[in-house]
Amino acid sequence: MNESNTPEMNGSQPIRSLQYMLNALAIHNSVLTRLAVDGIFGERTLEAVMVFQREYQLPVNGVVNLNTWDTIREAYFKVELLYGSPPPLNVLPSGTYTAAEGAESEPMLIVQAMFVSLTKVMSNFSPCQMNSCNDGETHTNIREVQRIAGLPITGTLDRATWAYMVQLYQALVTRS
Fold this sequence. Notes:
- The protein has about 180 residues and is mainly α.
- It is about 50% helix and about 0% strand.
C-alpha cells in the first residue's frame, strides 16, 4: 500500500481492497466505520483508517503504511475465520472416485455422518451405521439421493451423487 494517500491511487484496486477489509471488520466491530467500496480514498476512508489505527494501537495518522496494511489484513483474516463462509470441503479423492456397494473408504464416514443429519430433516433417509462401508442403509440412502436428483440409480457414490448430497445437506441442515 502507498505511504501517502495520493490522488493517483484513487480508483485503484489497493484502495478497494482496503475499503472492503475495513468494511468487513466494521460489520463485527461497531466502533469501526462502515464504508462504501468505491476505490476513492476520501474523508470516510481516511476516518475509517484513523479509527482502525486508534482501536489497534497504531500511530493515528491516516496513512496506510506497511504496518497498518498488515494489521488490517491480519484482523480481516481473523474475522473471516470466525464469521466468513467456510471454504468448500473437497472430500472425495481427485480423479474419478467411486465407491460401489460394499466398498470401504474414509470418505464414506463423512457421507454416513451427513445421512445422520439428513435423517433428522427428511423422512426419505434411514439412520446408517458409521462403518466406512457403502453397505446396508448407507447404500440404500445413496440410491435415494440418486433418485431424488434424477441421477442413474446405481447405489455407487460418485462425484455427481456427492455434489447433490452436499446441496441437500447445505439446504436442509446447515441453513435450517
